Amino acid sequence: MPTVDSGTREVALPHSVFEDGFALASGGLMIGLGLYFLKNAGLLTSGLSGAAFLLHYATGWDTGLSLFLLNLPFFALAWATLGTRFSLKSFGVVALISLMLDHLSAMFVVGQLHPGFAAVAGGVLIGIGLLALFRHGASVGGTSSLALHLQRRRGWPAGRVLMSIDAAIFMVALAVVDPKNIAWSITSALILNLMVTLNHRPGRYMTC
Fold it and tell me: Which are the contacts of 65, defined by CB distance < 8 A and separation ≥ 6?
């Protein structure tokens, strides 16, 4: 919680190591569970997670391992552009999510999951998880690091870069994923983005 100085301006207290660790583990758990719902319903998501899903649907490769390997070059980029602390936190979160995607089926089995419910629940869970990460100085790595790098070096708007990458993933997915599931996947991505947009506004919530 923020404290208040002698005026009216709020001052954020730094997060402790325990607070960071608990929030990152909780956020990673929420994101992993949301991705697990999407995967079991045959849906996609945005970013490198979507690319990992696409590789799984096309080749049968392990989703978690694919996600981890795809992120490695982007972590090097994040290290250079976003700093060591941010990169290490994000690396730990992605490792946790990758393990969950490949091993959650050993903990519980989803018998039947409607793609509509998976799209909504998955988008909400991933959105909540991302909010926890953002407020504790981490992310799920991947294309966001590339977008930030291109914005700083080339002046390309980060939002447009991310939208272009996601559009390319969904276009390629048309070859291996049912169009109805792609429609549900886009719905899930919109819900995820709405969760983040409504709850992560500068000036509304203090972050550190």
Answer: 98, 102
67's CB contacts (< 8 A; 6+ apart) are: 48, 49, 52, 94, 97, 98, 101
For the residues of 103-128, what is the DSSP string, one character each? Answer: HGGGT-------HHHHHHHHHHHHHH
Does residue 132 contact residue 27 with C-beta atoms inside 8 Å?
A: yes
For 5, which DSSP code? -
Residue in the structure block whose two tokens are 């207290």: 13
8 Å CB contact between 54 and 173? yes
Angstrom distances, CA of residue 126 to CA of 49, 117, 129, 184: 11, 14, 5, 15
- Evaluate if residue 107 carries a pLDDT over 70: yes
Q: What is the token pair recorded at 50?
A: 């979507």
pTM of the model: 0.84
CA angle 31, 44, 130 (to 5 degrees): 25
Question: Could you write out the DSSP letters of every residue in 68-96?
Answer: HHHHHHHHHHHHHHH-HHHHHHHHHHHHH
Top pLDDT among 37 and 168 is at 37
